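Translate sequence into structure tokens.
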Amino acid sequence: MRISGVVIKESLADLSVLEKIKTVRTEMWEHPESILYPIWNGVFFEMDFQKKEIENLAEVFSVAMKQNEKWYIDFHSDEGLVYVVFPGKYFCYQRGDSDGRKEAVQYGISINITANQLDWSEG
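Result follows.
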């Protein structure tokens, strides 16, 4: 199964997790409204995994993230699975599953991420 997604480096407390993914490109974005992180570094990745390995990657990301900050990582598979990873927790649902997406969005809101920022692509 092929997965693809993006990680913002500033969301990670443990950058060694980036060694577990195959980077295909990086981008830098300015966010002058952000006091802590006015520049974000996006790491885009694609790689082939078995489903169990993908779930392991989601868990590793959830642990590697800065635990008390408002970030999430999203990625999706070529078989229609969408993963949304928050600090300490992740969600997986089938593309188009509005209940699965809603559950992830509600969790994001519960940890004080504004609803308009919870706008990930489903691939």
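Note: The chain has one domain: 2-117.
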